[in-house]
Amino acid sequence: MTAAEAHGGGGTAREATLHLLLRVGLPRDPRATRHLGTFLAVTAATVLVTRALLAASGYPQLGGGDLHVAHVLWGGLLMALAFVLLLSFLGPVLRPVGAVLGGIGFGLFVDEVGKFVTSDNDYFYEPTAAIIYATVVALGLVGEWLHGRRPRDPREALAGAVDEAVAGVVGGFTHEARARARTLLEEAGDVRGAAETAALLRAVPEDDDELPDPVAAVARGTVRALHALVRARLVPWVAVVVLVGTSVVTVTRGLLGWGDLGGLWWVAAGVVVSGVVGVAFAVVGLLRVGRDAVDGYRWFRRAVLVSLLVTQFFLFRLSEWDASWGLLVDLLVLGLVSAELSVLRRAQEERGEPRAGRDTAEAGSDQPRTVR
């Protein structure tokens, strides 16, 4: 069965690409977006923490005389350790740990990019922040292209269930692991091998012992905190007000700084244009949220994504590391808006309302609902 047949015979270019990946034995990991998100979040956090600690300690040098052990070396060692672990053990259990170690290592590595793009090894090279941010965003977009733009093939879901079973056949299933495997098996349907996989899952014994997953614990705590904030009805609207306000401030900042940048006028232009687009998306959301809450919040989410993916890049080039505060605000607003969307969609599903088309900026999203 081809991917096109599995999804209704569309025969599109996307399905052809997916079919090619499957033919050469490359099913996508159902939890890949989580692992990639962890890797990129830890990378960004590592860069910010490293810069803060170095500034607070006066940029000490490890070594003496002509010897300088740069932290890019520690980054390389941690990335190597992540590769060794991921290449040494089967199954999904070690991937969260690998994502964290790899993220810390890559963060330490990319933090020193200024030294390797300048002739005088300048760690404080001004565009460094923009280069690092663009790198993280580009990797995120690659992950979105790989995992967010094409629906999962039933055979990929079956492969995910079998992957969960890899850990189970030697160490048993925790309740969460068995639930994940069963969900993937149900998604696979009646593809070839599903019956055998179901028998394998039934044969795996229960076992509560499993390598701790710190990423899952942090994710659960974050989701609970965001949903608790969403239940305070004013908080999502405060987030929207902050979104609109920061967009207006961004445009004003770009206009005021235009004349002082000389040959870097394009930086101010990027701030202004992307800021105007963000304001426009936020205004559209405000106009629509009264008629359709989900549609309105989808536009708010688009406005935040424009800021995260485009505006912040130019702001990092404009004001170097000061823009990191704007990045943290954007991430908080994105979390609150996404949590509100989750609540709205759950209420929509409970009422049995039909779902609209998929927003390409929201991989796998359910769609609109009317005002509560």
Describe, in short, the structure shown.
The protein has 372 residues and is mainly α. It has helices at 3-6, 13-23, 32-56, 71-88, 95-110, 113-116, 128-147, 154-171, 175-188, 194-203, 214-231, 234-257, 265-289, 293-319, 324-351.
List keywords for this structure.
disordered N terminus, 3 domains, single chain, 372 residues, globular
Kindly state the number of beta strands: 0
Distance between the termini: 43 Å
SSE series: HHHHHHHHHHHHHHH
Number of helices: 15
Number of domains in the coordinates?
A: 3
Q: What's the rounded overall pLDDT mean?
A: 82
Descriptive report:
The chain is built from 15 helices and no strands. The chain folds into three domains: 3-26 and 152-214, no CATH class; 32-147, no CATH class; 234-351. By secondary structure, it is mainly α. It has helices spanning 3-6, 13-23, 32-56, 71-88, 95-110, 113-116, 128-147, 154-171, 175-188, 194-203, 214-231, 234-257, 265-289, 293-319, 324-351.
